[in-house]
Amino acid sequence: MSSSLNAAGSARNNKEQNMSTIIQGTCWVFGDGISTDHITPGRYYHLRGDIPALAEHTLEDADPRFAAEARPGEIVVGGANFGQGSSREHAALVLKERGIPVVLAQSFARIFFRNMVNVGVTPITCSTAGFRGGDDLTIDLEAGQVLNHTRDLNVPFNPLPPIMREILDAGGLVPYVQENGGFA
C-alpha cells in the first residue's frame, strides 16, 4: 500500500480500525527529544515517495529493534517533546504505515502532533513515567485513561476534542474531508 491517504479502500479500513474508543497493545518506550529524524532518518530521504520502504526504517536510530520487530497494533511511548525537529509529515506517515494506532508522550512538538492527527495516528499527551518496553496497555480514548496492566498504573489524560476524534475516526484529514465535503 503506498499512502493510505490516497486509496478509498484503505481509508475505509483505517476508519474501521480507528472507530474503537479502546486501544490495547504492548508498548515500545523511547525517551525525551525523539525527533522526526529519529523517526525517519534523513539518510533515507530518497525514499520519501515510497512510504512502505521508508517505514522499514522507522525509529531505527532510536532503537534498531523497533524497525525490525515492531508489529501493527503496538503502541509507541515517548517522553518530552516527541516529534521535535522538521515539519515533515513522513514521520507521522511511517507510524501509520507500520500500524501504530497511538503515540503516548509527555509532550509533543506542535506540528508533529497535528501531522499525526492529519494522517490518522492518535496522539495522547500524558505522564509516561514508569512505563517500560513490553508493558501491556489499554487506552480508553473517551474516558481519558491509560491502564498499564503490567505495572498496575492508571494514567489520566485529557481526551482529544471532538473534531480531532472525528478526523481520527475517519482515518485522517483527507478521508474526513472526502466524507464530509469539508469542515461544517
Structural summary, described in words:
- By secondary structure, the protein is α/β, with parallel strands linked by helices.
- Helices cover 33% and strands 17% of the residues.
- The chain has a 7-stranded mixed β-sheet with strand order 4-3-2-1-5-6-7.
- α5 packs across α6 and α7 crosses α8.
- It is globular and about 45 Å long.
- It starts with 7 loop residues before the first helix and ends with a helix.
CA distance, first residue to last residue: 30 Å
Task: Tell me the β content.
Answer: 15-25%
The CATH first-level class comes to Alpha Beta
Report the major sheet. Answer: 7 strands, mixed
- Using the coordinates shown, work out and report the CATH topology: Aconitase, domain 4
Please state how the strands of the largest beta sheet are arranged side by side. Answer: 4-3-2-1-5-6-7
Helix content: 25-40%
Instruction: Determine the mean pLDDT.
Output: 89
Shape: globular
Number of domains: 1
Low-confidence segments, given as residue ranges, are: 1-18
Which CATH architecture would you pick? Alpha-Beta Barrel
Number of strands: 7
Count of alpha and pi helical runs: 8
Computed over alpha carbons, the radius of gyration is 15 Å
SS class? alpha/beta
Q: Say which CATH homologous superfamily is assigned.
A: Aconitase, domain 4
Q: SSE order in H/E notation?
A: HEHHHEHEHEEEEHH
Can you tag this structure with a few keywords?
alpha/beta, Aconitase, domain 4, 8 helices
